[in-house]
């Protein structure tokens, strides 16, 4: 293929030679060639404001992160079987961000791999096989991670729920199974019910895995007392509690560094990914001393790339930038401003059924007056926003939730621009007649 490759050729080649399930965003796909801060830039130099990318956490191509990678790549990149400063310095810095009972980390290369390891740890520690997970949750593309991902096994092409997985209803207090003040208890009670049902069959659980805000489920914010109740039931049954912070971690919540902290629970295992390396494949499993010790059965856990000096140098630079540029604080302030503005917008445009989220992890959904989802209108909104230079993404089981999870360098001006463009599109006929 010639270089630059014409777009129709890029598309044809992808269709023929890349995985057949690989999707493209937007009705007319974008050809992005560069990133810079909160912007993605296409081949013609058109800049798009990126409200989607929670991977490029401290901004696309952040110079400090790029330099850290370049510097270390030019010196050494090997596996973890030699002594080296980088892995120790990174681990030390990351552990300072976690509650003290989580004192051991394993470094891997993707969120899927992190959850795969976490699930294996829980199985090894408890000697049980069964997991409890949340409806429409997603935890990765490996076999074990897929087995606890209702987002996949319950959706098109999925094979349904595996025998060893037990699903809690999506704790959606807007239009889920339960609503109202105490719905957290009602949602969590299913945990107990599952555990009791298994007991009758002579089975016990290995643990529970869940995001503290259900991203793929549509930016669902579980009720305040939900996780404390779920964890209580799981722990009473001897299970391990795994918090998946792949999307929600590293300061995005604003109020707290991790989403589980909003719910005042202490997981036994925390998995991290996406933002850890700002786009470089870096993911982590943090666990208690007890879990780490019991997992060490004598068999080595080896990971060729995990924890190499380049990944660790990049990871450390990401943590430094979060601190130096006060990005958690920015998530709190800009996220708070944006949520307030979205709530104002909802008053003018009742098609916005619900606005939710924390920090720079927000979502709003489009519904008719009966709270029924409006996926076509949501798709229209996303594609129109792209035409106006703003990238947004859709998720949720009914494809009617707009997710907002930009790089944390998103500014108040960026938020104002987003709101102004949303106002323009919401005033268009297609979104007025629903
Ligand atoms: N957990 C969650 C919550 C995720 O959103 C994802 C990716 N979307 C994963 C795990 C898997 O991470 P990866 O794609 O890096 O394997």
Mean pLDDT: 97
Number of E-type strands:
15
Structural class: alpha/beta
Kindly state the percentage of residues in helix. Answer: 25-40%
Order of strands in the sheet with the most strands?
Answer: 4-10-9-8-7-5-6
Please give the largest β-sheet: 7 strands, mixed
Assembly type of the chains comes to single chain
Q: Helix-strand pattern, N to C?
A: HEEEHHEHEHHEHEHEEEHHHEEHEEEHH
Shape call: globular
Low-confidence stretches: none
The gyration radius over C-alpha positions equals 22 Å
Bound molecules: 4'-deoxy-4'-aminopyridoxal-5'-phosphate
Topology of this structure?
Blueprint (H helix, E strand, L loop, with lengths): L6 H11 L14 E5 L2 E4 L4 E4 L12 H11 L11 H12 L5 E7 L2 H16 L3 E5 L8 H5 L2 H4 L11 E4 L14 H18 L4 E7 L14 H11 L3 E5 L24 E4 L10 E6 H7 L13 H16 L2 H22 L3 E7 L2 E6 L8 H13 L2 E2 L1 E3 L5 E4 L7 H15 L2 H4 L2
This protein binds 4'-deoxy-4'-aminopyridoxal-5'-phosphate.
The site of 4'-deoxy-4'-aminopyridoxal-5'-phosphate has 14 residues, from helix 4.
